[in-house]
Amino acid sequence: MSFRKIIIASDSFKGCLSSLEVADAIAAGLDGHKIVRIGIADGGEGTAETLTRSLGGRTVGVMVHDPAGRRIMSSYGILPDGTAVLDLASASGLTLLAPEERNPMRTSTFGTGEMILDALERGCRKFMMGIGGSATNDAGTGMLAALGFRFLDSDGKAVEPCGANLSRITEIDGSGAAEELAGAGFTVACDVDNPFFGLSGASEVFATQKGASKDEVAALEAGMASFAEVLRKSYGEVGEIAGAGAAGGVGGAMALILGATLKRGIDMILDISGFDREVADADLVITGEGKIDAQTARGKAPAGVLERTRRINPGARVWAIGGRVETCPEVEALGFDRIVEISAGLPESEAMDPAKTAGRLLLLSDLISE
């Protein structure tokens, strides 16, 4: 089949290649086609960079605490209109920790709150945030603590904000919250639609990959359910908010306490990037991410690209490319025209090598010319 116009709109291959590096590697093997590269993200790592670059913003640095409490240099974007664009992952992300350091019972989103506070002090009052890729399961309590909130137990004593202590919290004290928050508005890009707690919630689905044991997952789940009740008494019901479980509960906390609007991250990026205009006359759309699995169907970038393409240009073919592909009913139900696994059977060291991954992506040209 001849593809005249090809759009390459893949998410990053986390820890290996950025979104635009994936697009460049695929495009390098294609001749005789009109190629359109679109950098995308879905609320996970890289969302702030994609938005800042797309909208002509600038990057500022800030010292924050990482998930383990160490001081690190992080950064976020400020757009020409003064909107702050942040990635939670740049302060509280899983990639900031060595595998043996992962412990969602203790890790904290405090550094994310420090980023928000820095932006507030610079005069920013509008925020766009990507909250995927977290190392935490603290329901956003660390972030809120950095912004001046306190968490109290049944004796009225302050509780350290972390996953292990969620069950101890009985009251949220916002009397010391940063005054600038009163005039701030938050739009949060979520990379998943999981609820705050429950079988599909933050702890049950994601805590294991953040380092939790089976018993710790159960403890974190109990803590999230308990904290949801505290939220309900003071702010409202969190249980039915899609995306409330994103970033270990940060989505829900921001929605109820900071009044944030939660959006599917890929939709936000596609709207800003002009994807609809470009896809209208495309013949082939290539999307993807590092691992395609059941979570892909829950708001991840490839699913969003497929859905948008089907709506705007039903005749276009849509291919999904993954370093790893986990065949499952959820992925099959999405309806991609083709799914390609480029690192099947390779050891992790080779599968994550940027140069070798780029080389394998280059070979997609053979499939496109079939």
Structure description:
A six-stranded mixed beta sheet has the order 3-4-5-6-9-10, sandwiched between helices. The chain has a five-stranded parallel beta sheet with strand order 2-1-11-12-13, with helices on both faces. It is an alpha/beta fold and 370 residues long. The chain is globular. It is built from 15 helices and 13 strands.
Topology:
Elements (H helix, E strand, L loop, with lengths): L4 E4 L10 H9 L6 E4 L9 H8 L3 E8 L5 E8 L5 E4 L1 H4 L17 H12 L4 E5 L10 H6 L3 E3 L18 E3 L11 E6 L11 H5 L7 H21 L11 H12 L3 E4 H9 L1 H5 L4 E9 L8 H12 L4 E9 L3 H6 L3 E4 L6 H4 L2 H9 L1 H5 L2
Parallel strand pairs: 1-2, 1-11, 5-6, 6-9, 9-10, 11-12, 12-13
Antiparallel strand pairs: 3-4, 4-5, 7-8
Helix pairs in contact: 1-14, 2-9, 9-11
Between the first and last Cα atoms, what is the distance in angstroms?
A: 7 Å
Percentage of residues assigned to helices: 25-40%
* Unreliably modeled segments: none
Find the structural class using helix and strand composition.
Answer: alpha/beta
- The CATH architecture of the largest domain would be Alpha-Beta Complex
Task: Give the overall shape.
Answer: globular
Number of helices: 15
Number of domains: 2
